[in-house]
Design goal:
The complex is a heterodimer of chains A (about 120) and B (about 130).
Chain A: E1 8-13, H1 21-35, E2 39-44, H2 66-71, E3 81-84, H3 85-90, E4 102-105, H4 107-116, E5 119-122
Parallel strand pairs in A: 1-2, 1-5, 2-3, 3-4
Chain B: E1 2-7, H1 16-29, E2 33-39, H2 62-71, E3 75-78, H3 79-83, H4 90-95, E4 107-110, H5 113-120, E5 124-128
Parallel strand pairs in B: 1-2, 1-5, 2-3, 3-4
Chain lengths: ~120, ~130
Amino acid sequence: MSNADKKSMLVLIRRAPYSSSLARASVDLALAAAAFEQQVDLLFQGDGVLQLLPNQQSELLGLKSIGKVLGSLPLYGIEQVYVDARSLSRYGLAGENFVVPVIPLEDEAMSELLARSDHLVSC
Amino acid sequence: MIYSLLVLSSPASGHGARTAQAFARAVLQRGHSIHRVFFLDEGTSTGSASAVFPQDETDRLQPWVDLAENHGVELVLCISSALKRGMLDEAEAQRYESPAATIHPAFIVSGLGQMIDASANSDRLITFGG
């Protein structure tokens, strides 16, 4: 890995868990960024907020739990993730039991987060 | 300006992969450079040497091969996405005792670190599909 300027990356996660392989691929991308010591933030939006729910019984689908992977984010130095407050309220979620601590963002704060990130990956 | 591209969609569905190669061509024509094109998830099937598309439609592999061979663009398929879709290069085909390699040699197979490296070394990262 060449030693370029550090760039901040925002991974925008919009897929429900297990809805497609892209849901997991986008999480893996964020983990890889953190593992390579890049500045990376995650923003869960729309159906993507469902990835944060606890007790995902993914073994019933024969798949690894995305919730468990997200729960390991603090091991990669990602202590909190951002979540679209409007998407949370659409699903009636408050967030106290999420698999990783979240920071709900209103529209304006979300725009600022998008604007200050060097790179945006939307999956 | 240095660009990298992230391709998430298959050339067999939608137009994300086609738009990506048209964009890559436009980037080079404008005098910019492309650090890397990284194919993730369904995007990895872009590198299939064995996919057969209808003869009366535009070739979906050759434009990428041309970018790699004539313009030095690095084409990288995410290994975990590729393997589960049967996309194997010679080395992986031997490792998994698969009857044949299925990836065109203009593409290489590697890990997500290549994507992160591309992001860190590019002014712009453009995502297609997804």
